[in-house]
Amino acid sequence: MHCSFCGKQEHACNVEKWKLDDNLTVDIARTKNICVEDPHNTEKKVICEACYQADLMNGYSDAELIDIHMQFGIEYILAGRITNAESAFRKLIGIKVTSDGLAHLAYCLAAQNKTEEARNFYFHALEIDPNHAMARNNLAKLK
Questions:
Q1: Which of 88, 78, 4, 9 lies closest to 41 in space, CA to CA?
Q2: CA torsion angle for 120, 87, 76, 65 (degrees, to 10)?
Q3: 36 pairs with which residues across the strands?
Q4: What domains, with CATH codes, occur in the chain?
């Protein structure tokens, strides 16, 4: 896998099985360095962290950018880099406010002990989707 922008090669370190909300299971190839699949490039390219941080995704649709920010946010959470994750989710909701984006942002805020702000974002996520499991479950943990 090569970065769409700088050409840097990323090697898959291992494959993890992830269970989705609809009970489907997908294989996720994890790399040593943080990078995500490039939804704009059909040639199995990725976007490396350096190119993501440089905001090189000109010409990408809003839907593609939302996907990229979500992917990076989740990767940052998995790496324990909560402030980077918060930034990615703030970029996501700057494009379009979604229940998933709000709930993930709230998770990052809660992890930083910003409880009141996290609570507000969880409530906002539930206004959009009253059945959002992550928002509902994590909000209950904050009380």
A1: 4
A2: 100
A3: 47
A4: 1-60 (no CATH), 61-143 (1.25.40.10)
**pLDDT tens digit sequence for 98-117:** 999 999 999 999 999 999 99
- Write down the pTM of the prediction: 0.87
Q: How far apart are CA 24 and CA 9, in angstroms?
A: 30
Q: Could you please report the per-residue DSSP string of 59-99?
A: T--HHHHHHHHHHHHHHHHHTT-HHHHHHHHHHHHHH---H
Spatial CB neighbours of 141, under 8 Å, sequence gap ≥ 6:
none
Q: Under 8 Å CB-to-CB from 127, ≥6 apart: which residues?
A: none
Sign of CA dihedral 20, 8, 31, 91: negative
Give the mean pLDDT of 133-141.
Answer: 96
pLDDT given at position 13: 58
30 in Cβ contact with 13 (< 8 Å)? yes
